[in-house]
Specification:
Blueprint: H1 7-13, H2 41-56, H3 62-65, E1 66-69, E2 73-79, E3 82-83, E4 92-95, E5 101-107, E6 111-121, E7 127-138, H4 141-146, H5 151-167, H6 172-177, H7 179-194, E8 199-210, H8 213-255, H9 257-272, H10 285-292
Antiparallel strand pairs: 1-4, 2-3, 2-5, 6-7, 7-8
Helix pairs in contact: 5-7, 8-9
Length: 293
């Protein structure tokens, strides 16, 4: 286990998430749409026949032609298999042509899914488990419908593999002390990878890092030893400062008799305030000095 993790460097890099959102790394779209291709004669004919049928069956045909979209919904319309060239419909009332239009409703609200606990081997060969949560939303209803079969399942599987790959490149102590950096790194990779699918990954959070009980005990012992060492160093530092202070006070008293007298009176005052029965016999200092000579 490494006692010198590169945590400061990792935290310095985590100050900006946009460093991972590199547009040059975005993959190309899988499906080329044909919304700008002019309709063929057959398609025009079917459209005219459908409109005639709608007019003939009025007003009952309106129940099949009108749809209501909520504020959080967008409608993607495929006419005879081709994407309609206009932006996604909604919210409000929209009109479709029965028989030739296929309506797909896309929810653009923020969603979330859990990253189930993943077994990961760290860079320093320690096996741990990590779980988290991913928040995302549909940015482009067109791409979400046409570029990926199941946006949520694809994003979830990509997030799981990204979590394993990214966490495996770091040491254990880096992961424990830099969860935010790990979350930002995974978020950046998912942002670049899911953009062609019409998905915007808004946030990735690492919930907890699970370790074996034996490893937890070892880390606890190590942290306790570090705390004891710091306490001993602090105590030694305090004793050294106290010795220097006493030496400085002794030097001052040696050169200043008045300071020595004041210290003598202060000592007498502290003895008198004591609860113990003590008898004090004041004795002139000058006489003591003569006797010592």
């Amino acid at each position: 286990m490494d006692n010198n993790p590169t945590t400061p460097a990792l935290l310095a890099q985590s100050s900006s998430v946009n460093v991972f959102h590199d547009e040059s790394l975005l993959p190309q779209r899988n499906v080329k749409t044909s919304e700008n291709v002019p309709p063929t004669c057959a398609e025009k004919t079917l459209f005219v026949l459908s409109m005639i049928l709608i007019v003939i069956t009025l007003p009952w045909s309106l129940f099949c032609c009108l749809r209501v979209m909520s504020e959080y919904e967008r409608a993607v319309i495929l006419r005879l298999g081709r994407l309609r060239p206009k932006p996604p419909r909604g919210p409000g009332l929209i009109f479709i042509v029965p028989c030739i239009d296929v309506l797909a409703v896309v929810d653009i609200r923020t969603r979330s899914f859990d990253l189930h606990r993943q077994e990961i081997l760290t860079r320093d060969m320690v096996t741990i488990s990590i779980d988290g949560v991913v928040y995302y939303s549909i940015k482009s209803p067109f791409d979400a419908m046409l570029q990926v079969y199941d946006p949520e399942e694809a994003t979830e599987k990509l997030a799981m593999t990204t979590l394993r790959n990214v966490a495996g490149t770091h040491k254990l102590m880096d992961l424990l002390s830099s969860k935010e950096y790990l979350s930002n790194q995974i978020e950046g990779i998912l942002y670049n990878s899911t953009e062609p699918w019409g998905i915007r990954v808004e946030r990735v959070e690492i919930k907890e890092i699970f370790m074996p009980d034996q490893l937890k005990r070892a880390l606890a012992v190590e942290q306790e030893a570090m705390r004891e060492a710091k306490a001993k160093v602090a105590a030694a530092q305090g004793e050294r400062d106290a010795v220097y202070a006493l030496k400085e006070a002794a030097d001052i008293m040696e050169t200043n008799p008045i300071a020595l007298q004041l210290r003598y009176l202060q000592t007498l005052n502290s003895i008198c305030n004591d609860d113990t029965r003590s008898y004090v016999f004041p004795f002139p200092v000058d006489i003591v000095r003569k006797l010592m000579k």
